[in-house]
Write a structure and sequence with these properties.
Number of domains of chain A: 2
CATH superfamily of the largest domain in chain A: Periplasmic binding protein-like II
Strand order of the largest sheet of chain B: 1-2
Largest interface: A-B, 67 and 73 residues
Number of helices of chain B: 13
Strand content of chain A: 15-25%
Shape of chain B: globular
Number of helices of chain A: 18
Distance between the termini of chain A: 31 Å
CATH topology of the largest domain in chain A: D-Maltodextrin-Binding Protein, domain 2
Structural class of chain B: mainly alpha
Radius of gyration of chain A: 23 Å
CATH class of the largest domain in chain A: Alpha Beta
CATH topology of the largest domain in chain B: MetI-like fold
CATH architecture of the largest domain in chain B: Orthogonal Bundle
Oligomer: heterodimer
Number of domains of chain B: 2
């Protein structure tokens, strides 16, 4: 035991032989370590498990990746500090790739870092982060009335085993963006089914109006899982059944991936589709080289920014269609606010979260940056809806979650996106890819580390 | 043999040696004393993490607010690793990549070193120009290659299309085979200069008079290369090869930036796999097992190469 404590306090261990990466941060394994989440705040903690936020003060370090455009974070911080003269917010920039984010946050916090106090994390992290105790269970400190402000389903998405590990900050969902001008030229209406997307795209390409029909996210990364979930749910399939067992090797999944692959083989989507993340697909669309784009809600404000976009004023947006009809499924994305369990300033951190999910901050997110607010009051505000066209149609979208209720979700998602990507790139047949995904998810949910 | 001992009479040779040893003993002790601090530092930053990783690989690890909570698991993590198709695919890819790139780098490196060694003017300028790829940070050069290979606006497609070598743009990083090849090209481009420098240093050690006498004996350039140059730089080639193999086995930054291991898992090197299991999936037990297996593989390979290296140098000396 003595040895182990010593090992633990020595801290970081990184194997470097050649450039071999094999490191991890460690914190003391005994209870002598300061458990700030529970001990550090015992003075202000009352018996009902809630804290008094009105007297919070100090500095809160907030780690967040750029939201839509970088300016938004500083706008929010400025307004927060104006309302809270005793609290200073220090922004730490995180990379925009969600997996890189997770890596740096998880290693820092696991290593016992007391900052960042609050971090912005993906909506798919609560189970993994809750399981690994990388986030404070907010329900232990905030009254249940705090959670009623959120639109329905969101708190459940941030929960794991009865605890709420994050406060929903803003929501993303997949939408179909289309070129109004091109459809008009060809005398077409916005498509009402996936089949119509295909035929309209082909028509526009044949007429020489546009180079590519439809661009989306096909690279081997989390975004492909999001796109796949939409087609899979449209086809009536599931990744995991209600018992948590994989059901991805199914005719429905076959239909979904075959459709995705046919988009590429028929030339509607470029061959480079299998390397596209959000930015690449958005770039092709904004440069005027594609008729349709599947992307998140922030793509709206990007397409309307003359600095980056050649299609300002020519873009329409509608809910993603389904097979044989309109109103298909859109994957829920978005970001939550988490609190570091080692924070030295829990009260100010909670107050920051309280404000960021309140009406004022959420209105800024929704009106200036076309994000979908998580605050139900703001989501239903007619004034907000007027400014943000995406919000007008969000109620028509059938939202679908990724199977992130399992702490092994990263492995499940890897099994999906690596195999689907392989099938799309022609490296393997669709049915073989789904079989392999099924096997890998099977061993992932039994906890094998994704090997 | 030093001239000193050669000069000593045969019957005194043993004595001289003993005397030298006893004279050096205090110095040697002082030497060890001075080495100790740095050995301790090296031990702390290399040995400790390696041993700790080994310990981690023998445990089930869950993360808690207070750090790792470990439960001894014996060899369960290793069993998981050894039975994993993904792991063996990574081993195969890493090995294949290392062997092909190192072989080509040694070949090209030799040619370039010979060319540079053969010119009289602008030798230093050529060396500096050639070193540019090596001096670039891999993350930066990999990003650059990413733009070159891009399937929509990549320069490579543009050039090949202008030359009518391809009809439609190719997604170089989009299929397994072409992604592996593209990555090999990027690696060879970047690390050949390293090989050139080492071989060039070897070439400059070859005495000029050896060439002169060889030509006087009527040897042609081809003969001179195989009988004079090659045996003399054999050691340098082996050294460069050893370094490169070790580096190639730890390859991380190039696939991390260029392909993230994709398409599928086609370019997932052992380091990328270890990183994914540990830091994406937060499975530190199996992740450590992957790391330890990699270390064992690399150690075994280096032992093989080291002995081959020694033989090569010995052969070179005897000729």
């Amino acid at each position: 035991m003595k040895n182990r404590t010593k090992l633990g306090t020595l801290g970081l261990s990184v194997v470097t032989l050649g450039a071999l990466v094999a490191g991890c941060g460690t914190a003391p394994t005994t209870n002598t370590a300061t458990n700030t989440a529970s001990n550090g705040t015992s003075g202000t903690q009352n018996t009902t498990g809630t804290v008094d936020l009105s007297k919070a003060s100090g500095t809160v370090v907030w780690a967040a990746s750029p939201i839509a455009q970088t300016g938004i974070r500083n706008t929010l911080i400025g307004d927060f500090e104006k309302a809270h003269p005793n609290i200073k917010i220090q922004l730490v920039d995180l990379p925009s790739n969600t997996d890189t984010n997770r890596q740096s946050l998880a290693t820092e916090i696991e290593g016992g870092a007391t900052t960042p106090d609050v971090y912005m994390g993906d909506v798919i992290w609560p189970a993994q982060f809750g399981q690994s105790q990388l986030a404070v269970p907010l329900n232990k400190y905030l009254p249940s009335s705090f959670f009623t402000r959120f639109a329905s389903g969101l708190v459940q998405g941030a929960s794991y085993k009865g605890n709420v590990y994050a406060a929903p900050f803003y929501v993303d969902s997949g939408f179909l963006y289309y070129r109004k001008d091109l459809l008009q030229k060809a005398g077409l209406q916005p498509p009402q089914s996936w089949e119509q997307v295909v035929s309209d795209a082909q028509t526009l390409q044949k007429k020489g109006l546009v180079q590519y029909g439809f661009v989306w996210q096909g690279a081997s990364y989390e975004g492909l899982t999001c796109d796949f979930m939409e087609y899979l749910t449209d086809a009536g399939g599931q990744v995991l059944n209600s018992q948590g067992q994989p059901t991805i090797d199914s005719p429905q999944a076959l239909k979904a991936v075959n459709f995705m692959k046919s988009l590429i083989t028929s030339g509607i989507s470029p061959r480079a589709e299998v390397t596209f993340q959000e930015a690449q697909s958005m770039n092709v669309f904004d440069q005027g080289n594609a008729a349709f784009l599947r992307n998140w809600d922030y793509a709206w404000s990007n397409s309307q920014n003359p600095a980056d976009s050649k299609v300002v004023g020519k873009v329409g947006v509608e809910p993603l269609p389904t097979f044989g009809g309109p109103d298909g499924h859109g994957t829920i994305g978005g970001w939550d606010l988490y609190v570091n369990p080692h924070t030295k300033n829990l009260n100010a951190s909670l107050e920051f979260i309280n404000w960021m999910t309140g009406v004022q901050a959420q209105k800024i997110l929704a009106t200036k940056y076309s994000e979908i607010p998580t605050n139900a009051t703001v989501q239903n505000d007619p004034q907000v809806k007027k400014v943000n066209p995406v919000l007008n149609i969000v109620s028509q979208v059938k939202l679908v979650s990724r199977p992130s209720q399992t702490p092994n979700y990263p492995q499940v998602s890897q099994a999906i996106y690596t195999n689907v990507n392989q099938a799309l790139s022609g490296g393997t047949s669709v049915s073989a890819a789904l079989k392999k995904a099924q096997q890998q998810i099977q061993s992932a949910v039994s906890g094998n580390g994704g090997l | 043999m030093t001239p000193q001992t050669d000069a000593a009479p045969t019957n005194q040779r043993g004595k001289v040696r003993n005397k030298r040893q006893s004279l050096q003993a205090p110095e040697r002790r002082a030497g060890y004393g001075m080495l100790t601090p740095s050995l301790l530092v090296i031990g702390a930053v290399t040995l400790f993490p390696i041993l700790y990783s080994m310990w981690m690989s023998l445990n089930h690890i869950s993360l808690t607010v207070n750090g790792f909570s470990m439960n001894f698991a014996g060899l369960q993590n290793y069993s998981l690793v050894i039975h994993s198709e993904t792991f063996w695919h990574s081993v195969w890819f890493t090995f294949y990549f290392a062997v092909v790139t190192v072989f080509l780098e040694l070949f090209l490196g030799m040619l370039i070193a010979l060319a540079i060694n053969g010119i009289d003017r602008l030798k230093n300028v050529s060396v500096v120009i050639m070193l540019i790829p090596w001096s670039l940070i891999t993350v930066v050069s990999a990003q650059m290659w990413g733009y070159i290979y891009n399937g929509v606006y990549g320069v490579l497609n543009y050039l090949l299309q202008s030359l009518h070598l391809i009809g439609a743009p190719v997604t170089w990083l989009g299929t397994g085979t072409s992604a592996v090849m593209a990555m090999m090209v990027a690696d060879i481009w970047k690390t050949t200069p390293f090989v050139v420098i080492i071989i060039l240093a070897g070439l400059q050690m070859v005495p000029r008079d050896l060439y002169e006498s060889a030509y006087l004996d009527g040897a042609n350039a081809w003969h001179v290369f195989w009988s004079v140059t090659f045996p003399m730089v054999r050691g340098s080639i082996a050294l460069a090869g050893l370094f490169r193999i070790l580096q190639a086995f730890g390859m991380f930054d190039l696939p991390y930036v260029l392909t993230q291991g994709g398409p599928g898992t086609a370019t997932e090197s052992l380091s990328i796999l270890g990183d994914r299991v540990m830091f994406q999936n937060l499975d530190f037990g199996p992740g450590s097992a992957v790391a330890v297996c990699t270390v064992i593989l690399v150690l075994a390979l280096s032992l093989v190469f080291l002995s081959a290296f020694r033989n090569l140098v010995r052969e070179g000396e005897s000729e």
